[in-house]
Specification:
33% of the residues lie in helices and 15% in strands. It is built from seven helices and six strands. Strands 1-6-5-2 form a four-stranded parallel sheet, sandwiched between helices. Strands 3-4 form a two-stranded antiparallel sheet. The longest helix is centred in the middle third of the chain and has 15 residues. The chain is globular. The mean pLDDT is 90.
């Protein structure tokens, strides 16, 4: 076991909710009205605090030490965030609000190097717990983007331009409320780009779900 129950208990679910555009507080993590024109995401759930040393170490081992078994405890943390959102958000779980899950895709060369897409493993763990279908082929990444760190908003948007295109399963998300899953969100532009593809294909709502904001 790579993350014992004692260590898991030391990774509390983040109590706050934030707008995915301006990163300021939001009641349920939804986009503020004045930020909506800049967002394809309807909201975001951030499960944990990046400053939590145990969580940060677990994410690092998951991604860079290739410990795929960490998908289960980390996936559980994501579901706990949705359960917390139930208090405000009728009804992330209780009435089956979300209907599909889409992981943020990796560029093919990067996935080949790592041997797996960590976002897809997390998505499938969440899907098993919530009994929701995962459409990992709904969106493809065709551009190996550079890091977003240090870039301003226009540079970040330009970096992501054309990075994602519809995949073979894109028709499966038409008319659905979708969760887009990733491990860590930095600027949020990657999730926004994926959400834009999904919205263009007919998704009714698109919300992000991630472990932490890095």
């Amino acid at each position: 076991m790579w993350l014992c129950e004692n260590c898991q208990s030391k990774i509390p679910t983040l109590m706050e909710f934030f707008c995915p555009v301006c990163s300021r507080g939001s009641l349920r993590g939804e986009v503020h009205d004045h930020c909506r024109h800049n967002s394809s995401l309807d909201g975001i759930f951030i499960a944990g605090d990046w400053n939590n040393k145990i969580l940060k170490k677990a994410i690092h081992r998951f991604k860079y030490n290739f410990i795929q078994d960490l998908k289960n405890p980390l996936g559980k943390l994501l579901v706990e965030k949705l359960e917390q959102a139930d208090t405000f958000f009728v009804p992330a779980l209780s009435e089956g609000y979300f209907e599909a899950i889409v992981p943020v895709p990796l560029f093919s060369r990067r996935e080949l190097w790592r041997g797996f897409n960590q976002a897809e493993l997390l998505a499938r763990s969440v899907g098993e717990l919530l009994l929701l279908p995962v459409f990992s082929g709904a969106v493809r990444r065709i551009k190996n983007t550079k890091t977003q760190v240090g870039k301003n908003q226009k540079e970040r948007q330009k970096n992501m331009l054309g990075a994602f295109v519809p995949g073979l399963e894109i028709g499966e998300i038409k008319g659905k409320k979708v969760l887009v899953v990733d491990d860590v969100v930095t600027t949020g532009e990657t999730m926004q780009a994926v959400a834009k593809v999904l919205k263009s294909a007919g998704a009714v709502e698109v919300w992000g779900l991630c472990l932490a904001r890095g």
